[in-house]
Design brief:
Layout lengths: L11 H13 L4 H7 L3 H4 L1 E4 L2 E4 L7 H13 L2 H9 L26 E2 L2 E2 L1 H19 L13 E5 L6 H9 L9 E5 L4 H8 L7 E6 L6 H17 L7 H4 E4 L3 H7 L6 E2 L17 H7 L1 H20 L6 H15 L4 E7 L6 H13 L17 E4 L2 H5 L3 H6 L6 E6 L25 E5 L2 E4 L11 E4 L1 H23 L22 H6 L13
Parallel strand pairs: 5-6, 5-7, 7-8, 8-9, 10-11, 10-12, 12-15
Antiparallel strand pairs: 1-2, 2-15, 3-4, 13-14
Length: 525
């Protein structure tokens, strides 16, 4: 890990990229497409059922070549191998960074300190599955003998954002006889609004805190305990039937009144923002069931393997990380708008905010030296069609360069209930950004001409596609951080960049689709 690598801005590829940027910064994207009819097919990559098109970024073949060279000069492959081997790449805490073990199959071997951690992971998963089935089928009864109908997860940061995002994304598979709510804000209104219409006798709380000392979480947990006891006659023994814990602190859990048999643990090599597929995901498993949860883990693992084995020129997370460096450090883009065209992914932007910005929120290198480059953009966003009636005006006609991540699904569950054209949501995408050819339940995106500014899109479809999408982000921030040489963290998912311009649309498209031309993003001068 301590091989002699030059500071980032002194590496040959970085200097070459700086010179290259000056050569192409005013080159119209429309001209790039006009001169290269195969651009829309060449600048693509796929993994499983995810398809990434990055052809509408302000890049050329030389840009990609130099970015890949930068990854090589930064020792990215070696750092990836170190992570997957269980090496302690988190040098500030002297820990491994091995959340990939959380979704490893039973027959894999992933050592930490010479010990294979996969059996421990699956032991916890099996306990989670047993408990989830117990609650879902009504065998778990509350203190008064009533079955549990309400599940409330209390946590903050990674103990909240991941579970909330996963629950919303996989709601189609959720058990609708159960009500799920999430409390994170220490502002008391968050708690009061979550429980105001619930019966304490039918409510189960999951307290998610590795140390069981997190101020906001334990404040809300105490409020939940007081609320429960007030509603059940003050019998302290009722706590054990209505509270479970996701924690590593058995002493604190027991002192709270929770039976440690109902404590689900995880390990110090799991960072909070990467923990949604650990026991922190207990609320997710309760909602969708063990089988669907394991299907989600299989999607995570598929993306992990793609990240680990695919050549960089076809590696979705690596490419997205490299494009992030290009857009942020050379094109000067300060933010990234995450715009999922799928209501189920409405909490994905908030999830990515922590995942990427906590990972890349550093200003010193591993050697403690202050950086002289940008370490990461600000992430923000909303579901796409909502954003079109909110902030797209500034993105489209303002003065800032704003890359956008567009995530599109092609399985529309609402079609079983609503009579709407299947392709209507896809029509909200920029021109030529719509799926063309079907494949086993999903659609490939085809960009055929220069109708928009730099863009890339990812397609997700149900459990495995969702989890691979999230898991790919496991690796984008790692790719970026490994190049920078600052604190290495991993993020999860595959997203997309979009900057488009109505000025670059063909006249025919403008005439036919003027009503949705505000989906375009960055004006070209």
């Amino acid at each position: 890990m301590k091989a002699t690598i030059k500071p980032l801005t002194q590496r040959p590829a970085w200097k070459a990229l700086a010179a290259h940027h000056k050569q192409i910064e005013k080159l119209p994207l429309r001209k790039l497409f006009a001169e290269d009819a195969k651009r829309g097919r060449r600048f693509t990559a796929e993994a499983g059922r995810l398809f990434l098109d990055f052809s509408k970024n302000c890049i050329t073949d030389q840009t990609v070549k130099l970015l890949l060279q930068l990854a090589g000069e930064s020792g990215l492959r070696g750092k990836m191998d170190a992570m997957f081997s269980g090496a302690k790449i988190n040098i500030t805490e002297n820990r491994a960074v091995l959340h990939v073990a959380l979704r490893a199959p039973k027959d894999e071997n992933l050592p930490v300190g010479g010990k294979d951690v996969v059996p421990e992971v699956h032991a916890v998963l099996d306990r989670m599955a047993e408990f989830s089935n117990y609650v879902r089928n009504g065998e778990w009864k509350g203190h008064t003998g009533k079955r549990i109908k309400n599940v409330i997860n209390i946590g903050i940061g990674g103990s909240d954002l991941g579970p909330v995002m996963a629950y919303e994304a996989l709601k189609h598979y959720s058990e609708r006889s159960l009500t799920f709510r999430f409390i994170s804000n220490v502002d008391g209104t968050d708690f009061l609004e979550a429980v105001r219409d619930l019966d304490p006798a039918e409510t189960l709380f999951i307290i998610s805190s590795k140390t069981f000392t997190t101020l906001e979480t334990m404040t809300n947990a105490q409020s939940a305990r007081d609320w429960l006891l007030a509603g059940l006659g003050g019998e302290v023994k009722a706590v054990a039937k209505h509270f479970v814990a996701v924690s590593a602190n058995a002493e604190k859990v027991s002192a709270f009144g929770i039976d440690t048999a109902n404590m689900f643990g995880f390990w110090d090599w799991v960072g909070g923002r990467y923990s949604m597929d650990s026991a922190i995901g207990l609320s997710t498993m309760l909602a969708v069931g063990p089988d669907h949860f394991r299907a989600m883990l299989a999607g995570f693992h598929a993306m992990d393997e793609h990240f680990r084995t695919a050549p960089f020129e076809k590696n979705l997370p690596v490419l997205m990380g490299l494009l992030s460096v290009w857009n942020n450090d050379f094109l000067g883009a300060q933010t990234v708008a995450v715009l999922p065209y799928e209501q189920y992914l409405k909490r994905f932007p908030a999830y990515l905010q922590q995942l990427t910005m906590e990972s890349n929120g550093k200003h010193v290198t591993l050697d403690g030296k202050k950086v002289n480059y940008q370490t990461g953009p600000v992430y923000w966003g909303e579901p796409g069609t909502n954003g079109q009636h909110s902030f797209y005006q500034l993105i489209h006609q303002g003065t800032r360069l704003i890359p956008c991540d567009w995530a599109v699904t092609t399985t529309f569950y609402w079609r079983m209930f609503l009579r709407r054209p299947r392709r209507w949501p896809l029509a909200k995408l920029p021109p030529r950004s719509k799926p063309k050819a079907h494949r086993t339940g999903w659609c490939r995106i085809a960009f055929l001409r220069a109708t928009v500014r730099p863009t890339s899109s990812s397609l997700t479809d149900s459990r495995r596609r969702f989890s691979a999408n999230s898991s790919g982000f496991t690796n984008i921030a790692f790719s970026r951080r490994a190049r920078f040489g600052t604190l290495i963290r991993l993020t999860n998912g595959v997203s997309s960049w979009a900057r488009c311009s109505r000025n670059e649309l063909s006249p025919n498209w403008n005439a036919k689709h003027r009503r949705i031309s505000n989906t375009t993003v960055q004006r070209t001068t």
